[in-house]
Amino acid sequence: MAAGLFSGNWGSATEPGYGLTTADVSDFGTSLVGVPVTVNHAGLNHAIGVLDATGIPVTKASFRDVLEQTATGRARSVGRVVQAGPGTDVLFSIDQSFGGLQELVRNGVFNGLSLTHVETGNRREPLELTLTSDPARAGASVALEYKPTALSALNVSMSAAPMETTSNAPAEPAAPEQTPLEAVMGRLSDADQQVVLERLGEADKTFASLKQQKTAAEQKAEAASKLLADRDADGTIVKDQIAYLRTLLEQAGAEVESDRLKDVPAYLDQNSLGHTHMALERVVQACSRALAGSRPTGAPRAAKRRAVEAPAPSSGAGPATPAVEASGNSGASVRNLLRSHFDC
What are phi and psi for residue 35, nearest 5 degrees? Predict the structure, then answer.
């Protein structure tokens, strides 16, 4: 799966709120580019905890470094902001390793965006753009996906600065002392010197080739290690959503359907297309059975919104589970919740 390229906005350009002004929106047009994309503020919780423990000030740079160097599992950065502006519009990518997360975004599970910033003195810097199902700012959402999704990297070359010259010519350096090899070569005939030089050239080519092979192997090993870590984090995010679905079913009185999903994470761990299809089939069957036993009701589901932009740092990492509104018809709650979160 290729990298996913999505667009959206993180708030109102005229009333951004949460300590930001309209002037800050304009400033963020450039400083947002390159900011890491996370899921449910898990990266924020991890990074703030590490920086607090080490006494390092929280800045855009220190936050990014902590995520890149120490974050694991659901706390890992899943992408980055590619372009920002006009206003609060953003264009961001999700790494190709997070295929499961891309599907969750496409199906509306993570259809909200939340921007977190830090203020140092009179300067405000964006820290992260997080994917969430419950954004703090009204209207902050993922708008659409762009295809094709290939991103081009910019190759920046720097020209070397000219060396300073002086009007006084430097004195000629003394002749360097001969090395032992040069001394031996000086005692050989021209023909023998040519043979030795050819052998040394062949050895140099062999050494250069081995060095290139070593560098290529190290780069492949590093890329494979990152890919495995990203896929592990992607699996954790998907499993969190399965657990969230089971909780919704249990809260709505569909414990039997919730219990039928307990084997889904084990199917996903097999890392095969067949087992993935089996897991999806289990989810669809649970949704269908829960909805089949429901009765229509006119009672609307109350919208639940958080009043803060980001949760306080904590050791717990997992999606928040909103309480299901009590009503006289639990089946209707199941239908509404499943449709809004899992497109069933």
Answer: -65, 135
Angle between helices 190-251 and 330-342 (to 10 degrees): 160
What distances in angstroms separate CA 14 from CA 20, 25, 120, 234, one per listed residue?
10, 9, 23, 35
Beta-carbon contacts of 40 under 8 Å, excluding residues fewer than 6 positions away, are 74, 130, 131, 132, 319, 320
Give ∠ CA 108-141-32 in degrees, rounded to 5: 125
Beta bridge partners of 89: 9
Structure tokens at 165: 């010259």
What are the extents of the domains in the chain? 4-146, 187-222, 227-301+327-342
Q: For 282-324, write each residue's pLDDT tens digit.
A: 888 888 888 777 645 444 444 344 433 444 444 444 444 333 3
What is the DSSP secondary structure assignment for residue 173, as one 8-state letter? P
The answer to whether 134 and 36 have CB atoms below 8 angstroms apart is: no
Q: Measured in Å, how far apart are the chain's first and last C-alpha atoms?
A: 24
Q: Could you read off the pLDDT of 89-148 as tens digits, one per residue?
A: 999 999 988 988 888 888 888 889 999 998 877 788 899 999 998 888 888 889 888 765
What's the confidence (pLDDT) of residue 294? Answer: 60
pLDDT for residue 92: 92
Query: Tokens standing for 254?
Result: 């569909």
Residues 155-167 pLDDT 10s: 333 333 333 334 4
Tell me: the pLDDT tens digits for 201-237?
A: 777 777 777 777 877 877 877 787 788 788 888 888 8
Tokens of 275: 């087992």
> Residue 196's Cα: distance from chain center in Å?
55
Stated pTM of the model: 0.56
Q: Is 312 exposed, middle or buried (0-12, 13-18, 19+ CB in 10 A)?
A: exposed
Which of 120, 14, 2, 7 minimizes the C-alpha distance to 59? 120
Q: CB–CB of 89/7 below 8 Å?
A: yes
Instruction: Name the strand (E) or helix (H) holding 187.
Output: none
Q: Are 118 and 56 in contact (CB under 8 A)?
A: no
